[in-house]
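Morning - 4-(N,N-dimethylamino)cinnamoyl-COA inputs below, output right after.
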Amino acid sequence: MADFEDIVVEHAADHVLQITLNRPKARNALRTNLLREIAETLDAAASDDALRAVVLTGGEKVFAAGADIGELAALDLKGVVEDARPGYWQRIAEFPKPIIAAVNGYALGGGCELAMHADIIIAADDAQFGQPEINLGILPGAGGTQRLIRAVGKPLAMKMVLAGEWIDARTALTSGLVAELTPREATIERAQALAATIAAKPPMAVRQAKDVLLKAFDTGLGAGLRLERQAFTILAATEDRQEGLSAFMEKRKPEFKGR
Ligand code: DAK
């Protein structure tokens, strides 16, 4: 596995890759190099058939305190326009396999936005989420205005983005930002177990399902239903569909091969 400066990459379970943000002294602030390392790791994972799900975590203390404020401060208008980071964010957003985020501690600004790039967020029961960019004279820049409002709805998203107020883990759960809460010491383990569960499912069906579910944010109901139908038809040609149906009828465990 390649060596990285700002992340640790390891295998967490069968077919599961784990990416751990590793700038603890800067509260895992997302400097450009860190984003580049995540994007490159995901690009490689996307084309590796042996990898079927990713756990993304900041470790046991903090998920991420947002963009690196020192880097932001050094950018003038030209720097903002030519910034490489939107390209890295885009690559993270386009990763086609499931990402499970394990959030301990703070997920603020770009940290909250990174968690929202995951498909499922598991959070510690004392985690905190926020979009405090307004305090810096900016606004969320990695999709936060769009993904947060879709996740938690208008009133809470407005409060978080306009007032910069953080929400606690319970609010994140009840508002729909987070799928599940665990005690802090169990968060990563639970995300790994969930990733392993998903990694044991037929990968083509998982991929189609993720793709179509996310399209719900971009399309109306009619177009979305057509995409679902299309995905359903594509899967009809897979060996894994045959295997899944046969295994059920034969009362045995299916063996999915990703074909
Ligand atoms: N950037 C750089 N350094 C940070 C940092 C950050 N976001 N957050 C913390 N640090 C550094 C601190 O400066 C400190 O460094 P030293 O003084 O030790 O050298 C060290 O981490 C420890 O910080 P604290 O002493 O403050 O630690 P505490 O545990 O007391 O507090 C905290 C932790 C996370 C509550 C606090 O550090 C904090 O409030 N941090 C800032 C949170 C924040 O405002 N986040 C939003 C950043 S703006 C874009 C995409 C995305 C974005 C923008 C554009 N494009 C693609 C265009 C996103 C913007 C943001 O996220």
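Note: The radius of gyration is 19 Å.

O.
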